[in-house]
Amino acid sequence: MTVVARLRPYGMHAFLLEYTVVLLAVDGRLASRRIQALLGLLTFAVLALCLKRLDRRQRLAAIICVPVATLFEVFGSLIWGGYTYRFHNIPLYVPPGHALVYVFGITAAALPFVGRHPDVFRRSVLAVAAAWAVAGVTIFPLTGHRSDVVGLTLLPLLAVCILRTRRGTMFAAIFIAVATLEIAGTLAGDWAWAAHAPWSGMASGNPPSSIAAGYAVIDGTVVLVAEAAVFALLRLRRRRTAAATQNEPAISLP
User: Fold this and answer.
1) Which of 66, 86, 188, 217 has the fewest CB atoms within 10 Å, counting from its CB?
2) How many distinct structural domains can be found in the chain?
3) Smallest Cα–Cα separation from 23: which of 4, 3, 2, 45?
């Protein structure tokens, strides 16, 4: 098997990480509401292409992720104020961007390495998250960076999601996607996290190291809503089938 053939299964995931970095760099460099709108439309188009690679249930969940993530964004940025976008808005690329993070996570289990070594993958990702979280309250403050108590506080929740749930692989992959977009977005100046988290007053990094735990809550909510929607659709289909059967005219024999 050639190197290209071996790497082909990782193509979509590599593309999504690269797309995220370029998207956020462009938004940071051009800093325009009009550009944000165009980037939003482009991200919706990328999402539409990625949806074609999913089965029906996964596709439904990814679509549901857009409105669910928007509600969390309204709360997290506009109400709670934990982070603020450059124009004090929610850029159009953010809702479909959340859905792409979800797609990245739910398809990770199909990657050859992850499929063969799921425990190694999950524990390795958690080890990186833990190292970052600990560094956020020990090493980083000594180098002039903020103390990141929020990141360390969220680490146990992230660990539970990765190690103690049926979807640990998804949550581990989500950490990779979230770390990429959070670092790229904050470095580009597209958004900034408050130095101290509202309400609690805990010191926060920019970004918090384990903020992927928040995304895990969002995507976990998406999974629950999607499963409820599928159940409701199946139940409605059974009712319609039963009603159609009852309404069929009886066939009389001669």
Assistant:
1) 217
2) 1
3) 45
